[in-house]
Specification:
The chain has 99 residues and is mainly alpha-helical. It has four helices and no strands. It is elongated, with a radius of gyration of 15 Å.
Length: 99
């Protein structure tokens, strides 16, 4: 993912961009489900849950956009995956039993 985000320009064919974007889209959907599941474990008025809902709203919006066979589309999906992992990590920390 870091490599994709570091692209200044991509030498890949459109069909390669499309395939990578498809794989990232499915990965992002799975992560969004995980974030949603973890967020539901927090109290309704918890700020961390509210932040998760914001990230999930962004995910829904981005994933609803038509897939394009471009490096920009692949990078958008990569940024989304990074945001979902970051939120999932924060939720896991919030839900971890105290040490």
């Amino acid at each position: 993912m870091s490599a994709v985000l570091a692209w200044k320009s991509s030498q890949l064919d459109d069909c390669d961009h499309e395939q990578i974007a498809l794989q990232m889209t499915e990965h992002a959907r799975g992560l969004a489900c995980d974030v949603h599941r973890q967020a539901l474990r927090l109290p309704e008025h918890d700020g961390r849950r509210a932040l998760a809902e914001v990230v999930l709203g962004d995910a829904e919006r981005i994933l609803a956009e038509p897939l394009e066979a471009t490096a920009a589309c692949v990078q958008d999906r990569a940024r989304l995956i990074r945001a979902l992992y970051a939120r999932l990590d924060r939720l896991a920390a919030a839900l971890a039993p105290p040490a």
